Every structure is written in C-alpha cells, then in structure tokens.
Amino acid sequence: MVVEVFKTNVQQEADKNHVMNFIQTQFPSYKINFDLEDCDKILRVEGDELRPENIIEYVNHLGYVCVPLE
To answer: Rounded to 5 degrees, what angle do the CA atoms 51, 53, 57 make?
Structure first.
C-alpha cells in the first residue's frame, strides 16, 4: 500500500467532492480524502501501485493546483 499526500488549492466542499469523484472513477481501488481545514488543503491518496504523477495530472486537468507535499 502506497500513501501519497498532496497540497492543493481546493477550497469548497463541492470542489472537493468533484475531485474525489473524478479520481475515484479513474482509480476505483484508491482510498481518497481531503483535509480542507489544513492550510495546505491536503489531498491524501492510498492505493496499490499508486503513481503520484497520475493524481497530479488528473487534479490539474480539473483546473486545480496539486503538488506533492514536502
């Protein structure tokens, strides 16, 4: 199991749900959650054979910033 954590600019619950649904459609086995209370608007993704570049690409495609959390 691989866990990746990303910093995003997702602000609203509706946006969070949109991003989560899109990722879940593309990668149904991944466990996805957001922490919008955190200043970095954390996106956390767990999954086998997880490729962070795929998550970044999909979130960016939706018009949001998504970068690995340092």
So the answer is: 125
CATH number at residue 22: 3.30.70.100
Structural element, H or E, at residue 25: helix 13-26
Mean pLDDT within 47-57:
95
| Share of the chain residues as helix, strand and coil, in percent rounded to the nearest 5 | 35, 30, 35
Number of structural domains, the chain? 1
Q: Give helix then strand counts, H and E, for the chain.
A: 2, 4
Residues 6 or more apart whose Cβ sits within 8 Å of residue 49: 2
Considering the entire predicted model, what is its pTM?
Answer: 0.94
